[in-house]
Structure formats: structure tokens, C-alpha cells
Amino acid sequence: MSHHASSSTDYSINGNDFRVGSPAVLYSSDVDVDASFSDVGSGEENTALHSLLGRASRKKKKVPLDHGRERSMSSLGMPEQYKGDWKEIEVPPLAPEEPEGDEHGGFMSKIPCWPKKKSMTEEEKIEAHKLGQWRATSIAGNDITSSCLYVAGIATMAGGKFAPISLLIVAIVLYLFRGVYTEVGSALPMNGGSYTCLLNTTTKLIGSVAACLTMLSYTATAVVSAQSAMSYFSYGLYDGFSVYWGTIIILGIFAALNLCGLSESANVALLIFIAHIFTLTLLCATAFAYMAQDWSTLVDNWSTPPINNVVSDIYFGYCSGLLGVTGFETSANYIEEQKDGVFPKTLRNMWIAVAIFNPLLGLLSLGTVSIPQIVANSNYVLAEVGGVTGGQWLNILVSADATLVLCGSVLTSCLPQFLLYKNPLTGTEPIIIIGFFCITSSLFIIVDGAVETLAGVYAISFLSVMGLFAIGNILLKYKRDRLPRDEKVSWISVLLGLGFMIAGWIGNVIYNPDNIKYFAIYFSVTLSIVLVMFTRTRILKVVLYFLANTFLDRYIGKWIRSQVRKINKQHVVFFAKSDDLEMLNKAVLYVRENELTERMKICHVYRTEEEIPPRLVHHVEILDEMYPKLRIDLVTVHAEGFTARVVHTLAEKLHVPQNFMFISCPGENFPEKIAKYGGMRIVTH
After folding, report:
1. CATH 1.20.1740.10 region(s) of the chain?
2. Cα separation of 547 and 562, whole Å?
3. Closest to 190 in 3D by CA, of 680, 683, 684
């Protein structure tokens, strides 16, 4: 079978010119033809591939002649270093599949990439489905304002009468982080929060640590929310209901609903958010009216002595009060689903909500209920306040609202690909959902339902995520300063915010040392799974070593070898703007240190051939020789420019996911926002 191209193309390597036309000509010295060609597309527009010419130092295979023709290489201008026992072979311009085996010799290919333009109607539909200000606010807002339902009691337990002051300090610290999140979100408007930020500024391993902490934070969030929901349900709606078993049941119910394909709706979240804000506002108004008639409870509470001393009470109240802003990080995890300019508004709206409600509810609790009552009923303190100030109807309303809002737990995951297996009937990920239920239930059982310990684990996880976000902002300023952003927060604000988070983290550990024990157990388990995924090829090779010369090698060894080959075959792509050898080498080093692959493509997108950097081919050839364990190919892409549509189309042609595509740090002249490139990663300065 042969294919004929309609035209020929000239290439030059180290000053030596070669012509590749129809039929394609490959100069070979015992080299496998399939090792020099790859399927990079189809159609008459594609140009034949150009080999980077024999690798004498690598494993070779004899190649049969298609037509048995031989010709003197000297007449074709072969370079001296490649002369020898050469044969000219006619081969198809494009081979159908990527080569198998141990051949690592790089190749060069030139492909057209002219994606079909989307109509304005399609673009408008995509934009119309994105979240506006209030729907986006409601999703994260339900999380952060649900914290108001238990933070007043927890802060009073730790800070006594100084709880409102502690909660006001928390609001001030959150204002600092509002700027931190805005800068990172405008520079990297991609889902993933601290994980995405650190992935684009550090290594994949450090980014995965952030992912582990985020997942642990969501795990603790689900447990604390479920336990608090059942506490309110038992107190105001169903007297005597078992909070312990109710918590496990509610976690199981939500797991079952997710398995059936029922997920959170932005419209439903907005309705719940409006009802919740209305309930909190009504409670504040009723409590203030009650307190204005009789100040004696507030006076009595304020006259009580400090738990330790003023500074200590305010500090530990602040550490516990940080639970009142959990959920602030949530908005960054769905930033791509928000319309342009909405993300900063969601942060502003959430900050206003907690800055008003948290200190105010802490003060109103002290003005209507005695401190011993607040401590005794800390799990459902706002229902107690509602019952005292408004009667049974307000007690029931607050309890119903709390049960509804606190049951809105979020499921998330950052684990291996096999966990993302989807149920074909429901389109859900059963391994994630069932695993999440098992983890949350076991955490609740291990701490025996102790809300203080649960809150401590929750706080440590959340504060770790917030601290890493601040560190990510610092690294973004230092290592990705060229990246365009709409807002820049000052260094002093970032460092102050980070300092307050570290102080809160330390305070939660000191206040209850058991917190760090349970946190360490679950964090180490989660991190171990991630580390196994990072080193799985080495682990599999160790298993193969011990299986060698045993009967099991015949049955298991073959499967393990196929898995290792499958892992190593995953291609990664680096888009090179220039032929800067130092930049290209940094990209290669990043791939070697962070990816489990033996295949890398360096792509250059150009409009005219004059734009192709003159030494790009030579430098790629140098890198291919320098790193024999990594096959490095060069792909030149003839396209309209380096646009998101071109990258998406190229990902389909090369069969490479866009999150395995890398670039150097873009500048002000970058054609589009980085988020439109589908998770493409920034790996060098």
C-alpha cells in the first residue's frame, strides 16, 4: 500500500538539505521505519514526516525495502556523518500508529491545524450557561454562611466573652485573603484552587499535596456539617433523634443520591441561599429587639472572668473562629464555570456576609443566652437563641434552615484515573462517592462524634489549604510575574494573611493536641495513595523483579509489563515559542521530574515558514541525544496562531489530553486567557 503526496518539502538539518516528497524518502541504517513516523493527522493537507535520521547508539531493526531500489547517497547530498551502508526506502507519508518497542529516536513532523471556527451562537450558548454573580455566590455562600450556625458556640467555648472580638479579627484576616484569591484567580482562572496555583508554580508533587489537603478539608466539612445538621434536627424538629446514627445515615443518603446522578443545582442553591440569609437576618432582628429590652444577660456575661487571660482568650477564640470562614476557598474550585468578572464579586459577597453575621451573632448570643448555656448547647446555639428570643416558631425555623443548609455537602476528588470510572447508567463516579462516604463515616466513628475534635481536624485542613494558597500567591509573584492579572495585592497583605493563618494553625494544635493526631492519620493515608501513583512504575518494576523466575511471572508478569508500557507511552507536549535551548531544557527536566512518560513532543505553531526558529530542529536533536530515556519529537504546526481552538484541535490530532500540554509563562501579548486552553500547564519562567 502506498500513498502519494502532491508536493515535496525541503528541510535542513545542520546545514544539510533534504527533500521529502511523494513517495516519502527515509534514509536509514538498520532503523525501524515505524520508529521514525507517527500518526499526526490525516488528509491531503498533511505533509510527509521528516526523520531526524539514524540513531547509531540506539537499538535498531532491519527494514525491508518496499520496492528494492538502491541509490548512491552521495548524489543526494547526504551529510558525511550519516554515510555508510544506507538504503533508500519508499514509505507512506504517514504511518497509522505510534511505534512500539524500545526505539527512542526522535522525529520531526509538520502538520496543518486549521480548526473550524465556532459560530457566535455557539459561543453565546457557552457563555450563557456560565454562572452569574448570585448563582455563583450562592454555591460557595451556602458553605461559608452555614459555618455561622456553629461557629458562635465553638468560638465562645474557646474565647468566652471575647468571642465577638475574635470573630471580628477573623473577618479582617479574611479581607486580606480576598485580595490574595482575587489575584490568583485573575492570573490563573482555572478550577482547582490551591492545587492549580501550586501546580503552575511548583512541581506536580507539591500541587498534589495541596490536592490532598483540599480533599481532607472537604471530608471534614462533610462530617462537621452532617453532625451539626443532625444536632439542629434533633433539637428543634425531632426531639430524641440519635445524632450519632443520624450523621452516618445522612452521609449515606447523600452518597446514594449522588450515585443515582442527582447533584447540586445552582438554581436550587440560590433559593436555599436566599432562604438562609432571610432566616439569619430575621434571627438577628428578633434577638436585637429582645436584647434591647433587657441588657442584663449581656452585662452578666461580660462580668464573668476570662477563661485564661484576655490575650489568650482572644487568640484561641480567633483560632476556633476561623471555622466561620470555611467555604471561602470553594469559589476558586469552579471559577471556570463563572462568567468573566464574577469571581471577585463572589469573594466580596461572601466576605460581607461573614463580616456582618459572624461577629453579630456572637454578640447577640452573649446578649440573650448565658455563657454556660452557649457552651452546653454549642452544637445548636442559634436554635437556642431563636427559642429564647422568638419562641418555638423561630426555634423550628432556625432548626429547619440549619438542617437544610448544612446538608449541602460538596463531593470532590483529586485521585487516580481509575477512580473516575463512570457508571454508564447514571454518569456518576461510584468509586469516588462510595470512598467519600467510607472516609467521612470512619472519621466520625473514630472521634466518637466529638464535635470539638471534628472541628479541630476541619480547622487544620482548612487553614492548611488557605496557607498554601497564600504561598501560591507568593510564588506566582516571584516565578510567574509575567502572567497577566487584573489585580495585584501587596506583599505585606499576603505575608500578613499567611502569618495569621500559621498562627491559627498552631493555635488549633495547641488548644487540642488530639486534633493533629487525627489529621495526621487521614492526611498520611491520602498522601500515601498519591505517592503510590507517582512511583507506580518503580513499584511495578520491583514487583517484576521478585516475580522473576517464578511461576507467577507467567501469569502476572505479562500484565504488569503491559501496564508499565501503557504508563510510559503517555505523550506530553511542550509548546515552544522560540529555539532557546535553555528554555527547552527546562521543559525536558520538568517532564523527567514530574511525569511518568518516555514520550515528549515539542511543538511550534507558526503562520509562515519564515517564523520557524532557525535552530529549533538542531536544539531538539541535541536534547533527544542528551536524554536517551526520553523520546523527544519535534512537531511544527501550521495554523492561524497559538489560539485555544488550535490547541484543542491539536490535542485531538495527537491524542494528548490538554492537561498534559505545557507552555512557558505567557506575557501580556498572550492571545487569550490561559483558562481557555483547557488546563494547559505553565512549567517554566
Report:
1. 135-511
2. 15
3. 680
